[in-house]
Design goal:
Layout (H helix, E strand, L loop, with lengths): L1 H19 L5 H23 L5 H14 L2 E12 L5 E12 L2 E14 L2 E5 L1
Antiparallel strand pairs: 1-2, 2-3, 3-4
Length: 122
């Protein structure tokens, strides 16, 4: 009987801890940040089509391309659970290149799960 109790308690405890450890993986967080940069690039591309004639469009494209950051890497990801269910405050070292200059900045953002999908909130 004693062995049965220990086995039952262990099983319940393992199930509980597994259910509580559904925080976003580093891979998930990196993917969300990359997706954000891609969406920003897409918006910039759409903006360049408003420039008008081809010569103006080329000049405008050049300015936009230099002004838009390019994501190089996302490192040192750290996420901490909040009081909300499936919501985490995260920080990461974001390496990006903009106008030929590379910099590393610490980004702070919220990652949360809605409809079984992880989302990024800046």
């Amino acid at each position: 009987m004693n062995s049965f109790k220990i086995l039952a308690i262990s099983t319940v405890l393992i199930a509980f801890l597994t259910a509580c450890s559904d925080d976003p993986s580093n891979r998930t967080v990196k993917g969300l940040v990359k997706k954000h940069y891609k969406q920003t690039d897409t918006m910039a591309d759409k903006t360049t089509t408003l420039a008008g004639n081809e010569q103006n469009n080329e000049s405008f494209n050049s300015v936009i391309e230099k002004a838009m950051p390019t994501l190089d890497s996302v490192d040192n990801i750290d996420c901490v659970a909040t009081d909300s269910v499936d919501a985490y405050l995260c920080s990461a070292d974001i390496t990006q290149t903009m106008n030929g200059h590379t910099s590393i900045n610490q980004g702070n953002f919220k990652v949360y799960k809605a409809n079984n999908k992880w989302l990024l909130d800046l």
